[in-house]
C-alpha cells in the first residue's frame, strides 16, 4: 500500500513537471508540425554530422533525430547543435537515463525512443527536456498518459499495422498525438499526415545508413528535397 502511494505521488509530481515542460514542448511540437518529417539518422563518424545536417537543411528539413545507436552519436549531436543552432535536433534510440543525460549535454531539443522506458521518461521530465517515448499498444499509451505525456512516437508504424492500426489504437485516446516512425517513406507518409492526430512522421529513407557511410551528401540533399515536395 505504501509502495502504491509512493508511486502515485511520484507520478503526480511527474505530471506537474510535464505541465511545466509544456512551453518548451509547445515550441518543439510547433516546429515538428511545420517540418512534418523527422529524418532519423545513424552516424558512425562524427565528421559526417555537420555535412549531413547541411544536406538535410539545404534539402528543406532543418530537423533530425540522431540515434544513440553508435559511439559517435553524442559527439555528432553536439556538433550539429553547435554548428547548426537553427536546426531542431533530437536524440533517438535513447534507452537509458545516462543516454538521455548525454543527449541533453550535447544540446538535444527533444528525446525519442523506440519504446516506453519509465526511467528515461522520468529523467527527461525531471530535467525539462521534451520526450516522446515509443508506444505500440494501449498499455504503452496508458503508461505514458500516467506520466502526463500526450505526444508519443508510434513505433514500428508500418510493421505494427500502419494507418489502420493507428486509427484503431488512437480511437480511445483522443487527447494523444502521435509521431509514427518505422517503415515510413515517400509512398506512405501522406496517409499518416492526413490523420489529425499525427504531428509528424519519422523516417530514414532520405538519409539511409549506406548513403551516410558513403558521404553521399548530394544524394541525401536531393532525396530530402523530394521528401519535402511529397508533404508540401
Ligand atoms: O530508435 C528510435 O528512437 C526509433 O524510434 C526507431 C527509428 O525511428 C526507426 O528505426 C526508423 O525507422 P525507419 O525509417 O524504418 O528506418
UniProtKB/TrEMBL annotation:
Catalytic activity as recorded in UniProt: 2-dehydro-3-deoxy-6-phospho-D-gluconate = D-glyceraldehyde 3-phosphate + pyruvate
GO molecular function, one term: 2-dehydro-3-deoxy-phosphogluconate aldolase activity
Keyword tags: Carbohydrate metabolism, Lyase, Schiff base
KW Manganese (keyword) present: no
Pathway recorded for this protein: Carbohydrate acid metabolism; 2-dehydro-3-deoxy-D-gluconate degradation; D-glyceraldehyde 3-phosphate and pyruvate from 2-dehydro-3-deoxy-D-gluconate: step 2/2
Keyword flag Lyase: yes
Enzyme Commission code(s) on record: 4.1.2.14
A Pfam family recorded for this sequence: Aldolase
Cited NCBIfam families: eda, PRK05718.1
Subunit structure: Homotrimer.
UniProt family annotation: Belongs to the KHG/KDPG aldolase family.
Protein name stated in the entry: 2-dehydro-3-deoxy-phosphogluconate aldolase
Taxonomic source organism: Gemmatirosa kalamazoonensis
Amino acid at each position: 500500500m505504501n509502495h502504491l502511494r509512493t508511486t502515485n505521488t511520484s507520478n503526480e509530481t511527474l505530471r506537474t513537471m510535464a505541465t511545466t515542460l509544456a512551453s518548451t514542448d509547445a515550441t518543439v511540437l510547433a516546429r515538428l508540425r511545420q517540418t512534418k518529417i523527422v529524418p532519423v539518422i545513424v552516424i558512425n563518424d562524427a565528421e559526417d554530422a555537420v555535412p549531413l545536417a547541411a544536406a538535410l537543411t539545404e534539402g528543406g528539413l532543418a530537423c533530425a533525430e540522431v540515434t544513440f545507436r553508435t559511439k559517435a552519436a553524442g559527439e555528432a549531436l553536439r556538433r550539429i547543435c553547435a554548428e547548426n543552432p537553427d536546426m531542431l535536433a533530437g536524440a533517438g534510440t535513447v534507452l537509458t537515463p545516462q543516454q538521455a543525460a548525454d543527449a541533453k549535454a550535447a544540446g538535444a531539443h527533444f528525446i525519442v525512443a523506440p519504446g516506453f522506458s519509465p526511467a528515461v521518461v522520468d529523467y527527461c521530465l525531471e530535467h525539462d527536456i521534451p520526450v516522446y517515448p515509443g508506444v505500440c499498444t494501449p498499455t504503452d499509451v496508458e503508461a505514458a498518459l500516467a506520466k502526463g505525456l500526450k505526444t508519443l512516437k508510434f513505433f514500428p508504424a508500418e510493421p505494427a499495422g500502419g494507418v489502420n492500426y493507428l486509427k484503431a489504437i488512437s480511437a480511445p485516446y483522443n487527447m494523444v498525438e502521435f509521431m509514427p516512425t518505422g517503415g515510413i517513406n515517400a509512398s506512405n507518409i501522406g496517409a499518416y499526415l492526413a490523420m489529425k492526430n499525427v504531428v509528424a512522421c519519422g523516417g530514414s529513407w532520405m538519409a539511409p545508413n549506406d548513403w551516410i557511410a558513403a558521404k553521399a551528401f548530394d544524394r541525401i540533399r536531393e532525396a530530402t528535397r523530394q521528401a519535402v515536395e511529397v508533404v508540401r
